[in-house]
Amino acid sequence: MKHIKEFESLDDNDPVVGDYVICNEADSDKDITAFISSNIGQIIKIKISDNLNKFLYFINYDNIPYNLRFRFTDFENTNKKMRGMFIEEIKYWSKNKEDLEVKLQANKYNL
């Protein structure tokens, strides 16, 4: 079993487009916070934030519950639904989705 440390990837690089992520977004809506922290997203774009000089990661999520869809933005006229995250909100990342699925299962059962 591979171990993933917080704020590190399996190959010790910053996350890049195409990487899978688990985020920890602090939002006043507990439903969106629960969805984001318990689902795997994929980075579809990275840009520098204009006013904060920080990288903003655009994360695509699938299977979004209907009641949360309005909290996600359409990505560049596609069917992809995304949210923007800063590096501090990305808890785990990997090039392999299966690695993060193991992490989610371990967290679910407090392993």
What is the strand and helix layout of this fold?
Elements: E1 20-23, H1 30-37, E2 41-48, E3 55-61, E4 73-74, E5 81-86, E6 90-94, H2 97-108
Walk me through this protein's architecture:
- This protein has one domain (20-108).
- It is 18% helix and 29% strand.
- The protein is built from 2 helices and 6 strands.
- The protein has a 6-stranded antiparallel beta sheet with strand order 4-5-3-2-1-6, covered by helices on one side.
- Strand 4 (73-74) and strand 5 (81-86) form a beta hairpin.
- It is globular, with a radius of gyration of 14 Å.
- Residues 1-11 have low confidence and may be disordered.
What descriptors fit this protein?
111 residues, alpha+beta, six-stranded antiparallel beta sheet, 2 helices, 6 strands
Give a brief rundown of this model.
With 111 residues, this protein is of the alpha+beta class.
